Amino acid sequence: MIFVDASYLIALIVEKDQWHGDAVRLLEKLKSEEKMITEAMIIESLNIIGSCHGGKVGYMAFKYIRDNFTIFKSDTLLEESLRYYLQFNGTLSLADCTAIHTMKENDIYEILSFDDDFDKVDGILRVH
Predict the structure, then answer these.
(1) 37 backbone dihedrals φ, ψ, rounded to 5°
(2) Whole-number Å distance between alpha carbons of 85 and 20
(3) What angle do CA 92, 93, 95 make, to 5 degrees?
(4) pLDDT of 92-108, one tens digit each?
(5) Sign of the C-alpha dihedral, residues 78, 46, 48, 127?
(6) I need a surface site. Which of 43, 88, 96, 102 has the fewest CB within 10 A?
(7) How many whole angstroms separate alpha carbon 114 and alpha carbon 22?
């Protein structure tokens, strides 16, 4: 299982993104892995994708995620993620902290991400 960060999805769909070529190259790894994401990451992704390509492309991206990813949901996700938000003193976004919490809850050690903020989190390997 691999966790997928918004930065990867944005780079994959937004051709002008600096990481687009790398995202396309990594698509093979994504196909062969079970993928997990949080709703916070979906919102973050669709906000940028929609602003670059419009709502229809954002909706298509959502349908792809819904059909191909496990979307982690928990009644306490926000509260639990705030622990990491405080631990990193706000240097990681709350959405990123939902990723950290979800990964630790589900014994996931790899995150597909171009966001080097994850490099400061022990026990998480960023695939990029």
Answers:
(1) -150, 160
(2) 28
(3) 125
(4) 999 999 999 999 999 99
(5) positive
(6) 43
(7) 9
